[in-house]
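Submission sheet (multi-component)
Chains listed below:
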Amino acid sequence: MLELRNVTAGYGHFTALWDVSLRVDTGEAVAVVGPNGAGKTTLMRVISGLVPVRGGTLAFDGESLVRRKAHEVVARGIAHVPEGRRLFPRLTVVDNLKMGAFLPAARRVYAESVERVFALFPVLAARRDQRAGSLSGGEQQMLAIGRALMSRPKLILLDEPSLGLAPVMVFRVFDLIRRVREEGYTILVVEQNVRQVLKLVDRAYLLEVGRIKMEGRAETLSEQDFVRKAYVGL
Amino acid sequence: MIEPIFLAEAAVNGLLLGGVLALLALGLNLIFGVIDIVWIAYVDLVMICMYAVYFLVMVYGWPVWLAGLLSLGLGVLLGIGVHLLIISPILTSPPINQLLATGGLLFFLQSAATFLWSTDHKSVRLTLPIIEIAGMFLSFARLIAFGLSILAVVGLYLFLTRTYMGTAIRAVSQDREAMALMGASPQRVYLVTSAVGGAMAGLAAALLSIQYSVHPFFGAAFGPITFMVCVLGGLGNMLGAFVASFIMSEIISIGGVVISTEMGYVIAFLVFIVMMFARPGGLLAKRE
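Outcome: structure written.
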């Protein structure tokens, strides 16, 4: 479904990703883990078109996404839940969801999409007319995920969904992602919380200083290997 | 001592002036809030549209309402043109360059108007009645201008809150990158915003044409007060700009009657300076 081959990308004179190759198949949940500054967020931004690809190939459903702008990438079925959630704080919950369905194809099924998101996250229905900025951290994460679902994506990119949440909420967010998975969505998730995320996904990649250092099936990759590699460097 | 009836008349006139002022302030503030660039030449676009109304009515004999509609259309075209030709290439430039570019447009329009049409004051001669309501004498032209302004403001409000594009315009002002991730092309949102801002300028031009004569320095006369209203309301804050329009127009109108017309403006600017110290973020800004 999504395939990156030898992707290089960066900002200005700085190269954040070197020769990154990665693949996500339909129906899979895949994680990218690694320490701070490894290039995880850049990887997500490259896939969704916010950061241009400098070298290598990036394809989705057989079509190249190289040089595609962010708004064109969404139209092809990739929804990006960015780091820090990036809600529209002064819009209501409902208006945030409406913006998730901005594309014409998504607008046509807006009513049904809203029902589905509210069924998945009932608390959002109760808060529908509140400003997004007034929600708690966990509710904001639900809204960010719900907003992404509104575009009816084939693939969801989740960037650090548990970042900045209270420990109790971290568990709930992983539970949310599990529920989204059960709905049949394909997921690519970036996380620092290695132990939790490995329980959730089928496969995982370890990214370190801009390069893929390890990859494999989640159950065969022991958490210790990853943690040692990623954080202790042994 | 001034008779209460004159004060009442001034207050009503202030209210009527506030309507058109609100139109201008909202147009300018919308563009600033979304694109993050102040169109210094905004009221000079109004001046160009006013000349269009003048020539259509006085030279070509068009009815005023039709010339007004064309002015609105011209405003849309000017808004789109300014965005594509001037704003778009300098979107990521330092703010000082953006200021210089739109300021350059101001001088260009002023000089071009002086060159083409001379500095004569030109007015659309309309014989609209003065009506007497409860002892106050009010200009019918002002009443029409106020009514249409309020209709346009309501229309703008409905557009920004009820439609996908309008909501997207508000969303972009809060987080442009996130809105790109929703599938909205920033360039398209900017274009629609500029067109709407231009439409407000074109409509304001039509409504000002029936009250004031036009000259190349019309922008210099009406521009400062428009910017002041935007800043007083909080740059980018639509509700604030709306409220500030009426506060400023009332001060000018009542101050003008109580002391003198010039002093009305002096007091308005004085209030503005004091308010900038008291509430630098604008009238409705929340204290951090």
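Remark: Residues 4-35 of chain B form the longest helix (32 residues).
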